[in-house]
Amino acid sequence: MTEYKPGDKVVVLGKVEDTTCKRFIVSLPNECGGTVKFLEESEILGKLEDFQPKEEKIKFTPEMKEEFDGLKSRYADLYSAMDALMEKDDHNVLKKYLFLDSLPDNANQYQFSLAWEKPSRIEVIEPEKHEVKMGVQKMYLNKAGIFMFSLALRLKHNFTLEEVDQAEKQLGIQGLQDKWHEAAKEDRE
Question: At what angle do helices 161-171 and 176-188 cross, to 10 degrees?
Answer without folding.
Answer: 150
